[in-house]
Amino acid sequence: MVAGAFSAFALPVLAATEAKGPLIEVWKTPTCGCCKEWVSHLERAGFKTTVHDVEDTSAIRAKKGIPLALASCHTGEVAGYALEGHVPASEIKRLLAERPQAVGLAVAGMPMGSPGMEGPPGAAQPQPRFDVLLVSKQGAPTVYRAYR
Fold this sequence. Notes:
This protein has helices spanning 2-19, 33-44, 58-64, 89-98; strands at residues 23-28, 48-53, 74-78, 81-85, 104-107, 130-135, 142-147. The chain has a single domain (21-117, 126-147), classed as Glutaredoxin (3-Layer(aba) Sandwich). The longest helix has 18 residues, at 2-19. Residues 1-19 have low confidence and may be disordered. It is an alpha/beta fold. It is 32% helix and 26% strand.
């Protein structure tokens, strides 16, 4: 009886967990506020996240195959793809739907208006002006989506 009661209780909890989107692992420095905001953006879009606070993200960035020229303040990984910087959740969903042969996506630097870089609540929000780049396994990155 106890086992049955546990099973009846556990199944809805497991189903709710499984209903969320794919897991995104994120490596960021412990004090970076915009990285925390990007993680919140991902979670609001339905992704599960696991965050690793590290002192320096350059080693993980290199390990994931992101060129130094595309560096930002955090690096992520989802389903074998690297995510560098403030990549919008919508582009991550598109990447997972299309499954291109690529290292992953990058938003170089920390452009104002990108997810996590919107500015304080109540303040005038900057117009997004940045490119999401598809990082190829061989050759130069290409624009996956331009935000203007």
